[in-house]
Design a protein that fits this description.
mainly alpha
Length: 106
């Protein structure tokens, strides 16, 4: 039973690392700043979720699991808020480039 839990945790953590590598590739591939931010935000959100899920499976369900879930929740909230603020700032500051590269609702 212990091996099964270790294998499941290792798979989740490896999937999280692979998702982060894909997000890094997306950040370097895209030219426009909002596309880069989207790639980074999606990759971080999914990668963090998978890695923390792997840690929860590895450690077992206890108070540590609850703390890890709280950390994940805080990171998800902070990531989405900071991404929104930064993208809003980009739209406000560089309006001409934004309208040239994508549709933005006024």
């Amino acid at each position: 039973m212990e091996w099964l839990r270790f294998i499941a945790a290792a798979i989740l953590i490896l999937l999280g690392l692979i998702m982060e590598l894909i997000a890094v590739f997306g950040v370097y591939r895209f030219k426009f700043v909002l596309n880069r931010m989207h790639s980074a935000a999606i990759g971080d959100t999914l990668a963090l979720g998978l890695v923390i899920a792997g840690l929860i499976v590895m450690k077992g369900f206890s108070l540590v699991s609850l703390k890890l879930l709280f950390v994940l929740f805080c990171l998800w909230v902070a990531s989405s808020v900071s991404g929104h603020v930064l993208s809003r700032m980009e739209v406000t500051i560089d309006e001409e480039d934004v309208h040239k590269n994508c549709e933005v609702q006024e």
